[in-house]
């Protein structure tokens, strides 16, 4: 099987990245982040075992209105650009997004990862962010289906869109820094039909 996906490097402008980072820094206080321990019902599980080992915030739930969030305002660019509308694969071309939610994940400690899982949306859109130079190894995304495996490097400001039901995982991070802003961040937009 050939995986249908869209990958766009440098999706956001420098100014857009700057205001995304301003919000990431604002959210960097530990009390704002959830973890699998503090929120065990969030994320994929296998026989009751949590598959993710990271920190996360549902941005839509954190703010009372979209206009209070830099991230929620800037990520509207995905709908302005609509990269799926001109894609050759029918999975993207015929898609009409009616609802989306945004999850910000932080991988800032050794062995943080997200084991093999799939999502409940129609399309999953990932955009990765980290302070350059990169201070960790790993953190790439693997798409998997039976014998087919595709490894996609998590480059800074890279957008990846793929069907949510494809099995995927984040490889473990090996990290030597101490600040949260030195980690790997992933803005996930879950796109739904209804």
Strand content: 25-35%
Briefly note the structural class of the backbone.
alpha+beta
H/E element order: EHEEEEHHHHEEEEEEEEEE
Note the total helix count.
5
Strand order of the largest sheet: 1-12-8-15-6-5
Can you give the helix content as a percent range?
Answer: 10-25%
Apparent shape: globular
> What radius of gyration results from the CA coordinates?
16 Å
Could you tell me how far the N terminus lies from the C terminus, measured between alpha carbons in angstroms? 28 Å
Please outline the major beta sheet: 6 strands, antiparallel
How many strand elements? 15
Unreliable parts: none
CATH topology: Jelly Rolls
Mean pLDDT: 88
In CATH, the homologous superfamily goes by the name q2cbj1_9rhob like domain
Number of separate domains: 1
CATH architecture title: Sandwich
The top-level CATH class is Mainly Beta
Question: Brief overview, please?
Answer:
The protein has helices at 14-26, 59-62, 70-74, 77-81, 90-93, and strands at residues 6-8, 45-46, 49-50, 52-53, 55-58, 99-107, 113-117, 123-129, 136-137, 141-145, 148-152, 159-163, 167-170, 174-175, 184-192. It has 194 residues and is an alpha+beta fold.
Overview of the molecule:
The chain has helices at 14-26, 59-62, 70-74, 77-81, 90-93, and strands spanning 6-8, 45-46, 49-50, 52-53, 55-58, 99-107, 113-117, 123-129, 136-137, 141-145, 148-152, 159-163, 167-170, 174-175, 184-192. It is an alpha+beta fold and 194 residues long. It has a single domain, classed as q2cbj1_9rhob like domain (Jelly Rolls). It has a six-stranded antiparallel β-sheet. Strand 10 and strand 11 form a beta hairpin. The two termini are 28 Å apart. The model has no long low-confidence stretch (mean pLDDT 88).
């Amino acid at each position: 099987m050939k995986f249908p996906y869209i990958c766009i490097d440098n999706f956001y402008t420098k100014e857009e990245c700057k205001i995304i980072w301003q919000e990431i820094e604002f959210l960097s206080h530990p009390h704002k982040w959830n973890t699998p321990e503090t929120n065990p019902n969030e994320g994929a599980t296998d026989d009751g075992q949590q598959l993710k080992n990271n920190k996360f915030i549902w941005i839509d739930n954190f703010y009372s209105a979209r206009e209070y969030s830099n991230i929620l305002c800037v990520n509207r660019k995905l709908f302005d650009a609509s990269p799926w509308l001109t894609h050759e694969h029918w999975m993207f071309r015929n898609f009409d997004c009616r609802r989306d939610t945004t999850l910000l994940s932080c991988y800032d400690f050794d062995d943080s990862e997200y084991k093999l899982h799939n999502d409940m949306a129609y399309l999953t859109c990932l955009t990765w962010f980290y302070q350059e130079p990169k201070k960790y190894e790993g953190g790439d995304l693997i798409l998997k289906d039976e014998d087919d495996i595709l490894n996609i490097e998590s480059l800074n400001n890279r957008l990846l869109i793929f069907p949510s039901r494809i099995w995927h995982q984040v490889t473990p991070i090996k990290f030597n820094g101490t600040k949260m802003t030195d980690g790997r961040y992933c803005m996930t937009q879950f796109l739904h039909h209804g």
